[in-house]
Amino acid sequence: MCPAPALPSVEGVDSLLSFRSVSKLYGDGPGAVRALDEVTVVVPRGGFTAVMGPSGSGKSTFMNVAAGLDDVTAGEVLLDGQPLHALDDRARTVLRRTHVGFVFQSFNLVPTLDVRENVLLPFELAGRRLSAEDHAWVEHLLGVLGLADRVTHRPGELSGGQQQRVAIARALAPRPAVVLADEPTGNLDTRSSREVLGLLRTAAREYGQTIVMVSHDPVAASYADRVLVLADGRLVGDHDAMSPQQIAELLIGFEVAREGGAA
Ligand SMILES: Nc1ncnc2c1ncn2[C@@H]1O[C@H](COP(=O)(O)OP(=O)(O)OP(=O)(O)O)[C@@H](O)[C@H]1O
Question: Is the ipTM beyond the 0.90 threshold?
Fold first, then answer.
C-alpha cells in the first residue's frame, strides 16, 4: 500500500490546516452566539489531533469551518495552504473532494447504494479510477471494519454502528490528506471503537494522513498525539498525547473552573 499523495508544505512548516484568529458568530445583535472566538491553531501534516470540550463549546463548528462548509465571521482558515475565504464554492468543493474525508455525526450514507458503492463514492465523485493499491486498501478497510460480509447491503439494512463504520471506510478509502471525524466512535462498542481508533492512528502514522477527531471520550482522545480543548468557542488547551486518566482529569478541571466562574 502506498502512502497518501504528497502535497506541498505550507508556510515553511509542514502544516495542513491552520486557523488564524478565527471567530464564528451565529446570528447578530445581542442574541448572537460566538461559536468560535479568536481561535489560532496549526494542525501539522500527518498528525492525529483530538478536539474536545463540553457540549456547545464549538467543536462541530471548528470542523465545519475547517472544511469550508461554513464561512468564518473573522480571521482565516488555510487548508493545504489555500485560504478558504478566497475560494468560490466550486473551488472549495474541488479542494474538499481532493483533500478531505468526512465522518459526520449523521453518517450521510446514500440509502440507494450498497456498502461497497457508498465506500467507492468518493472515487466516483472525483472521477478517479481505482489503482490496484486502492482496491487492496478498500478491501483492507472493509475487513478491519468488519464489513466484508455486508458489502451488498444497503444502509437501511445495517445497524447504527455498522453504518458508522461504512462512513469511516468511505472517509479513509481515497486516502485523503485530511480526515475530519466528528465523534467517529459515538455508536460503537468497545471493540469496534478500538479498531476504528487504531485505524485512524495507522492512517496518520503510516500513511501520513492528517486526522482531526472530535470526541467526548477520553479513551478515544488518548489515541491522538495532540489534544485540543475548546470551551465557549475559545481554545483553552493544547496538549501532547495523554493517557485517558490525564484527559479525564483535564476535562474535569475545566468543568470545575467554568462552574466556579459561573457561580
Ligand atoms: N446553525 C446555528 N445557528 C445558531 N447557533 C448555532 C448553530 N450551530 C451551532 N450553534 C451554536 O454554536 C455553539 C457551538 O455549537 P457546536 O455545535 O459547534 O458545539 P459542539 O461543541 O460541537 O457541541 P456538541 O458537543 O453538543 O455537539 C452552540 O452554542 C450552538 O448552539
Answer: yes
Q: Is 217 helix (H, G, I), strand (E, B) or coil?
A: coil
Which of 25, 59, 230 has the most ligand 1 atoms within 8 A of CB, as the residue to mutate?
59
Interval between CA 4 and ligand 1 midpoint (Å): 32
In ligand 1, which atom is closest to the CA atom of 62? 18
Cβ neighbours of 262 (radius 10 Å): 6
Each domain of the chain, given as residue ranges in start order, spans 15-262
What is the reported pTM? 0.87
Q: What is the pLDDT of residues 240-249, one digit of tens each?
A: 999 999 999 9
Query: For ligand 1, what atom is nearest to the CA of residue 233?
Result: 14
Q: Is the CB of 229 inside a 6 Å radius of any atom of ligand 1?
A: no
Using an 8 Å Cβ cutoff, are 115 and 151 in contact? Answer: yes
DSSP state letters, 85-118: GGS-HHHHHHHHHHHEEEE-SS----TTS-HHHH
Can you name the CATH fold of 15-262? Answer: Rossmann fold (3.40.50)
- Antiparallel, parallel or unpaired: β 178-182 and 74-79: unpaired
Using CB atoms within 10 A of its CB, is residue 156 exposed (0-12), middle (13-18) or buried (19+)?
A: exposed
Burial letters 24-57, b for 16+ CB under 10 A, else e: beeeeeeeeebbbbebebbbbbbbbbbbbbbeeb
Q: Which residue is listed with cell 481532493?
A: 98
Enter the C-alpha cell of residue 120: 467507492
Which of 92, 96, 122, 97 shows the shortest CA–CA distance to 110?
A: 122
